[in-house]
């Protein structure tokens, strides 16, 4: 089967967590949409259609993928998958080539005939797909289309359950580990990879949903895992209280309390502090006692400032969304529904931080100011990545420089607004 995963115009709603990656690389459940498709479809060849600024980095990361290559669509029948589609993998088998899957009036999937490929170019998906969809039998697609970052958090518990049920895990060491850890709930709802290391006095509670621990993970004593949750490969948990609805991606270092959150991968949250209903991108370091609020005192729904524009989430529990390479110092306190851009530096002064911290900016003793020189930020990124045997490539550096330039106006507006509010209060 040939598949092509595409971004539509709504992908821009996922700043700051999708500034450096296509929306279909964001985690929900055990996988990103791309990983889920490649895992559960019988894929022979695949393509991706992404925002132009992401193309070079994506080609570098996925050399076997045809990136933004519209000519490739002429070579055979291709299943087109909306990158925002969150679905139970078990429903993939129900897709019929003569149908179009629709969610809230938007195409979730469609099988493209080679003769129709001429209607699609690299930048007209939102115009071409509705035209092609009119020639298909419309069906209600299973699952959801994420619209904003908080949708990933909202749907994560159900997606964790679906992904667990769909995976063929193979050998598990639940019985062997059961001699020195506490298991609550059905053992068949727990998977522990044979290469994972779990200390005594760990509690795994599967009464509300499944728990999975992937290869090479390390779970320290006095950690509690409450399902549904997932611990990615080579992640380490240090006396952590992981509550339901949490996904911890690969190679994370995690301590403290986490609830209903997604750590994309390569996140350092070693110390105590609460992280709730939040999405944290790679190479973020959360200093000791960094904590966020995810619930307002009056229990009203939360507004989130995405790219500086306040958006009504419709959700009562929303934490923070933190972009790549951001660092927080000891005692950072994030308000409900905060948006923190990429490569930002947070040095608090004991009060709640602004809800909107643009990319490449600083909180410096209570003031929102422009960030450190970009070259210093890039040097820090290189050092952090080298600590995990990764390298900042030239394509990634070019993308960071481009995002730095394109977010300058957002930065200027936010700093100006902050200065005005501070002057009014004083």
Short description:
The chain has 426 residues and is of the alpha/beta class.
Keywords:
single chain; alpha/beta; Spore Coat Polysaccharide Biosynthesis Protein SpsA, Chain A; 426 residues; 8 helices; 9-stranded parallel β-sheet; UDP N-Acetylglucosamine Acyltransferase, domain 1; 29% strand; 2 domains
Describe this protein's structure:
Helix content is 21%, strand content 29%. It has 426 residues and is α/β, with parallel strands linked by helices. The protein folds into two domains: 2-146, Spore Coat Polysaccharide Biosynthesis Protein SpsA, Chain A (Alpha-Beta Complex), CATH 3.90.550.10; 153-425, Hexapeptide repeat proteins (UDP N-Acetylglucosamine Acyltransferase, domain 1).
């Amino acid at each position: 089967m040939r598949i092509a995963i595409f971004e539509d115009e709504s992908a821009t709603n996922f700043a700051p967590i999708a500034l450096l990656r296509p929306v279909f690389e964001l985690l929900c459940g055990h996988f990103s949409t791309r990983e889920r498709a490649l895992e559960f479809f019988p894929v022979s060849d695949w393509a991706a259609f992404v925002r132009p600024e992401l193309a070079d980095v994506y080609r570098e990361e996925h050399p076997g993928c045809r990136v933004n290559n519209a000519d490739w669509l002429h070579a055979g029948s291709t299943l087109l998958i909306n990158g925002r589609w969150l679905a139970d993998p078990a429903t993939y088998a129900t897709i019929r080539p003569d149908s179009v899957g629709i969610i809230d009036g938007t195409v979730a999937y469609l099988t493209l005939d080679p003769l129709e490929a001429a209607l699609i170019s690299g930048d007209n998906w939102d115009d071409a797909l509705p035209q092609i969809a009119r020639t298909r039998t419309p069906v209600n697609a299973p699952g959801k289309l994420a619209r904003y970052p908080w949708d990933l958090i909202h749907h994560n518990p159900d997606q964790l359950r679906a992904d667990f049920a769909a995976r063929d895990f193979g050998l598990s060491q639940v019985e062997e580990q059961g001699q020195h850890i506490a298991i609550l709930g059905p053992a068949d709802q727990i998977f522990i990879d044979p290469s994972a290391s779990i200390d005594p006095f760990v509690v795994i509670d599967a009464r509300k949903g499944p728990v999975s621990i992937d290869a090479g993970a390390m779970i320290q004593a006095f950690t509690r895992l409450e399902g549904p949750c997932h611990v990615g490969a080579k992640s380490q948990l240090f006396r952590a209280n992981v509550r339901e609805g949490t996904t911890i991606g690969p190679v994370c270092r995690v301590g403290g309390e986490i609830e209903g959150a997604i750590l994309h991968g390569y996140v350092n949250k070693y110390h105590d502090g609460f992280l709730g209903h939040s999405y944290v991108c790679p190479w973020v370091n959360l200093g000791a006692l960094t904590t966020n609020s995810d619930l307002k005192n009056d229990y009203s729904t939360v507004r989130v400032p995405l790219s500086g524009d306040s958006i009504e989430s419709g959700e009562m529990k929303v934490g923070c969304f933190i972009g790549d390479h951001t660092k927080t110092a000891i005692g950072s306190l994030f308000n409900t529904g905060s948006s923190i851009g990429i490569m930002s530096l947070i040095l608090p002064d004991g009060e709640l931080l602004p809800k909107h911290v643009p990319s490449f900016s600083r909180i410096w003793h209570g003031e929102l100011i422009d960030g450190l020189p970009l070259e210093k930020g890039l040097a820090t990124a290189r050092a952090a990545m080298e600590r995990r045997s990764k390298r900042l490539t030239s394509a990634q550096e070019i993308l960071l420089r481009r995002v730095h330039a394109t977010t300058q106006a957002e930065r200027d507006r936010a700093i100006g607004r902050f200065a005005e509010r501070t002057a009014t209060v004083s």
